[in-house]
Amino acid sequence: MTYFGIEKIVEDTGMTIDEICEEGTLDGVLWGVCKKCGYTVRVEPDQDAGWCADCDGKTVVSALFLLGVI
Q: How far is 35 from 5, CA to CA, in rounded Å?
């Protein structure tokens, strides 16, 4: 299994890590990524097992989890 991390979110959104985190604190949602297939989607900041619409697994984690903030 390929593991996708924060780099995939930065690549797909064109945002910096600081911008991604700031968006999560201001909007209550931020970007997350499926660890299995790399699908990026907006999720709750504390998401650690979100549903991936692309590969049908509970493998989506938020950027804050990937960064070790949560």
A: 7
Phi, psi of 57 (to 5 degrees): -135, 160
Give the integer Cα–Cα distance in Å for 9 and 52. Answer: 14
Which CATH number, 3.40.50, 1.10.8, 2.20.28, 2.130.10, labels domain 6-66? 2.20.28
| Rounded distance between C-alpha atoms, residue 39 and residue 12, angstroms | 9
What confidence tier does 1 reach under pLDDT thresholds 50, 70, 90? Answer: low
The label of the residue with tokens 């790399």 reads 38
